[in-house]
Amino acid sequence: MSRNDEIATLLEEFADLLDAKGVEYKPRAYRRAAENIRDYPGAIEGLAAEGEDSVGEIDGVGDAISSKVVEYFETGEIEELTELREDLPVEMDALTAVEGIGPKSVGSLYEALGITTLDELEAAAEAGEIQEVSGFGAKTEQNILDNIDFAREAHERSLLGEARPYGDQIRAYLAAGDAVEECALGGSIRRWRPTIGDVDVLVGSTDAEAVVERFADWDELDRVIESGETKASAYADDVRVDLRVVDPSEFGAALQYFTGSKDHNVAVRNRAIERDLKVNEYGVFDVTGVEDDDQRAGELVASKSEEAVYDALGMEWVPPELRENRGEVAAAAAGSLPDLLAEGEVRGDIHTHTNWSDGGNTIAEMVEGVTDFGHDYLAVTDHATGPGMVGGVGVSDERLREQIPEIESVAAEADIDVFTGVEANIAADGTISVADDLLADLDVVVASPHAALDGDGTDRLVTAAEHPDVNVIGHPTGRYLNRREGLDVDIGRLAEAAAANDTALEINANPARLDLGGGAVKQAIEAGATIVINTDAHSPGNFELLRYGVHTARRGWAETDDVLNTRDAEGLREFLDG
Ligand code: DGT
Ligand code: CA
Ligand code: CA
Ligand code: ZN
User: Fold this and answer.
1) Beta bridge partners of 301
2) Which CATH superfamily is domain 158-246 in?
3) Where are the domains of the chain?
4) Which residue from 180, 245, 260, 485 lies 20 to 30 Å from 384 (Cα-Cα)?
5) Boundaries of each Polymerase/histidinol phosphatase N-terminal domain copy (predicted)?
């Protein structure tokens, strides 16, 4: 975690605690400052060393906050935050993992019932005490009971977007070690699953002790929970990291085994058995006539590389994102694996926000950011008002009309193509929250569900996809990973409607969403739909999130032609006009 992230996280905690105390306005300022510090390209510790004025040069960071930042670097704590924590000794992250429970509710429940943990919350709900608290009702209480298990489980899994940077860092760090011959990530993080139980990292080395030692010395680790001769486990923040060291000659077999998924490995193992072979973490062995049940018994056929392991089983090498037992074993055996979309093939972003709605930056700053990122085009799609847009976030039709010439004037100066657009809301009955004549005047219409996100949403989304001016269904299920499951959607039926109406289905690359997910993407493509991968950026730093969308597309077997924004601006225009 960079010091910028560290400070941002503290300020967000500050904001949550202020919210819990019922303080108004201030939390919003703290969150905005946190976001800008996180996105700030320089090192915050450098500014802090120069003093409060330098910290205050970051957008949205006023005197009160900059003095706290300096205090933290000087003393190692923010006194006011420490006091707030003592005042409200709640497990904020765990409690707010329950859908419908925010920091404010946590504050009220602590005030009224002294609730600090999920267990206490559950007990109070079961005893009917929650509905007695002012501002809560029987419905909220039932909602807590319905969601607590989900929240408990979710709290134990990290988001891919949180875990992946640690994975990249630990891999680079270990790979630079003297004793390390091979190093790779395995497990769910290598498969780019949207949530991660632990980050698996595998090293090939003849000196396991030195590798375990180097691992334990990694700066980012907060605590080591287990350490043995060839393995170790530790936490960096809330992310668990699992190290395993194997002999370099067996690295490929170990990597294949520890990448999983379990279901993929079962299918691979069954294929081996059919051919009188055995596959395990040590290699592929010919076991014809072998009685010995030692793991390494039999004639070794392959173990050094993953390619060799799959080859020995008569299969193409399987990209990790496909290893979910969704038909990849048969396809690899038949030599018919998809030619997957690659990072770098996506050429633009058509779902982004500016400070006209809830984004943090101007239209010009977003255009500059996406240009620096290397894209060929951008669509500005601020939130329209409507259901789900609380706190005046959405833009009225009238304001959207005013925004069009503003976008066009930035476009005239830009090195890339800039499209006008909107992110409209899909109401529960499938209607779109913006007037038809305005929709017709905009280049890109993203329509997304933002409220009433439970139950079956198929009819609702199909109706939206059939609207002649809707180009993209944004984050179709509305899920928030680890927080809410979102709409149930018959993806096949939605995809058919989308394909028939030239509407693309989005993979929202924001790591909190990754919506659609891999399984749904595969179904959508099979039903003929076009996919579009957008970051839903609210600041220029968010364009970097694209890779999570690309790997989600790969999990859905997407090839280049399946993805709308691999086309150039001309190609995109043809789709929009089609
Ligand atoms: P996670 O960490 O819950 O997000 O998911 P994974 O897939 O990373 O699971 P993890 O960390 O428990 O184990 C890493 C891989 O090791 C897993 O994908 C497959 C392999 N593996 C672990 N335990 C077993 C097992 O009992 N049988 C088989 N076939 N494979 C296993
Ligand atoms: Ca894992
Ligand atoms: Ca593991
Ligand atoms: Zn959006």
Assistant:
1) none
2) Beta Polymerase, domain 2 (3.30.460.10)
3) 4-155, 158-246, 251-334, 343-577
4) 485
5) 348-428
Give the closest residue (by CA) to ligand 1 atom 30. 262
pLDDT, one tens digit per residue, over 290-313 is 988 899 999 999 999 999 999 999
Residue 240 CA, ligand 2 centroid: distance in Å: 9
In CATH, the number for domain 343-577 is: 3.20.20.140
Q: What is the tens place of the pLDDT at every residue in 258-283?
A: 999 999 999 999 999 999 999 999 99
Residue 117 contacts by C-beta under 8 Å, 6 or more apart in sequence? 90, 91, 94, 95
Beta strand 472-473 with 504-508: parallel, antiparallel or unpaired? parallel
Gap between the Cα atoms of 337 and 329, Å rounded:
9
* 155 pLDDT above the threshold of 80: no
User: Do 34 and 96 meet the contact criterion of CB atoms below 8 Å apart?
Assistant: no
Nearest-atom number in ligand 1 for the CA of 266 is: 29
Q: Which residues contact 239 (CB under 8 A, 6 or more apart)?
A: 158, 162, 163, 166, 196, 198, 199
Residue 148: both structure tokens together: 């607590």
Task: Note the pLDDT of residue 390.
Answer: 65
pTM of this prediction?
Answer: 0.82
User: Six-digit token pair at 454?
Assistant: 């439970």
The confidence score (pLDDT) of residue 392 equals: 67
Tens digits of per-residue pLDDT, 30-41? 999 998 898 888
pLDDT at res. 436? 96
User: How much is the pLDDT for 168?
Assistant: 98
Distance CA 37, CA 39 (A): 5
Residues with CB under 6 A from ligand 1: 187-188, 193, 196-198, 200, 257-258, 260-262, 265
Q: Is residue 152 scored above 90 in pLDDT?
A: no
Using only the alpha carbons of the chain, give its radius of gyration.
26
* Side-chain half-sphere exposure of 41, counting CA atoms within 13 A: 4
